[in-house]
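Input record (one chain):
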Amino acid sequence: MATPAPPAYELSHLGALEAEAVHVFREVAATFERPVLLFSGGKDSMVMLHVAAKAFWPAPLPFPVMHVDTGHNFDEVIRFRDETVARYGLRLVVASVQDDIDAGRSVEDPKAGRNRLQTATLLRGIRENGFDAVFGGARRDEEKARAKERVFSFRDEFGQWDPRRQRPELWNLYNGRHRKGEHIRVFPLSNWTELDIWQYVEAEDVTLPSLYYAHQRPVVQRDGMLLAETRFLTVAEGEVPYPATVRFRTIGDATCTGCVESTASTPAEVVAEVAATRVTERGATRADDRISEAGMEDRKKEGYF
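The corresponding structure, as predicted from the sequence alone:
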């Protein structure tokens, strides 16, 4: 009598994405000297941190986390960042945009947000700490420039990105070779979508800032978006703040990150809402991405993520 074949071992869709990200984290830890994980407290960086912790458990994370702080963050996010650092026992490096403004390395335009100023601060943080690999939570579904990205994104000695110099990644083999002064941006969540992120948050019970769930706050309408009234946002003439029940799909500089009207107050409700949307979170709620058709790609070439 023939021996029955053992049952096939199949990963779920989320399990396969997690396994891919775990492999990327371990590959970088094994082959780079000074990696760092960018951590803003947003949903993508929180999922990235959660996967990284699983990749090295029970050992602590073998690299620090870095926050590029615009100085215009939502208060709830900064509190969440500090609570998370304490909960995971992380070493936090803060690269401050305000420090660059005070030192004259960056010039602030009062009419624009500080997101564009993050590039110089990010590059300074990488250079001063000698980081040779920088984990970021960017996903290919967010924006067309990011859709071109490799998992290992080569950056030259000026931190600049050239799509023509990116390396093939056949069979998920990654080439992290670089000279001194160059570095690699690493995107473990490249193949995830916004829906994948939220399904993972629900399945793994990942803690996120309260801003990601429905709450009431004063908002103003500007350029087809809802912007939260904060101490960083100057209400323009003719704009009248009003209370609305909203949530944030992405979190960044408070002066240019919009929210959406929503009653979704749990991960399951957000999953249902995201499944029905047809506009990416950056396209719907990030004013800084609307500067031009090639705005994100231009910023990436300068050294942005």
